[in-house]
User: What shape does this take?
Amino acid sequence: MKGFTFGLLYGAASPVPGISGGTLFVFLNIYEDVFISASWANIKKNLSLVISFLIGCGVGLLGISHVIMYLLGNYERIMYFSFIGLILGCIPNIYKKATVVKIKAINGLIFAVALAFMLLLTFSGGELSTNSSLEQLGSLTPNLLLWIFIASIISSMAMLIPGVGGSIMMLALGIYTIFIEAVSTFNLVLLSVLTVAMILGTLLGVIAIKKLLNSYPQTLYCAILGFIIGSIFIIYPGFSANLEGLISLIFVALFAVFAFWLSKKG
Assistant: This one.
């Protein structure tokens, strides 16, 4: 049940720009544990947990994600302010991990670069209007499938980085609409390409992050801090001084307190 629940949350969060599996791991204060303990030996030892997690991912992606996308479509501002609250609530825990020892100048620079990268995405790319649908693109050519495959690998690796997320990278690479269409229409060809690419990208991402955690933990957490602060600018929906705006502020506060409590509890 624990593996299924984590998978459900991971899958449901996948289509939401600014929220990633890595962000979820930070919320739950298990980011380090997940990657440091990642090995084939542990996968075999906890196979039932891994399988239940993958099943939960599928259910969350194909089922709950539709609910989240519906809520985003009808209560966009309140939902995004709730996500901002979650991000704000886990920032103190990330900062604490990044400053266990005095921050080196190079790691401070990496924080600035990560933040600048997110600001660049905010102001210059990743709009839904720039992502063409399958109907607009025409038929599925070999070149298009190859690009979807490569972009999906990159996006899957980004899914493990808190703040960045696979959805933001898909928006930036122009395949977000195709991804949503493939899931909602259950396009088997596209789903097969996406699934293989995502598995490969996730494996590569886990190897890279595990290496960074073992050798350069402060560097990684400084980058995460920049990415996750920058993601606030990406998902900020604007503010209106009305009832909806008041409700949005209340949700920011509630979710920030919840995320802070959750990230400390683990």
Q: What stands out?
A: The two ends are 17 Å apart (CA to CA).
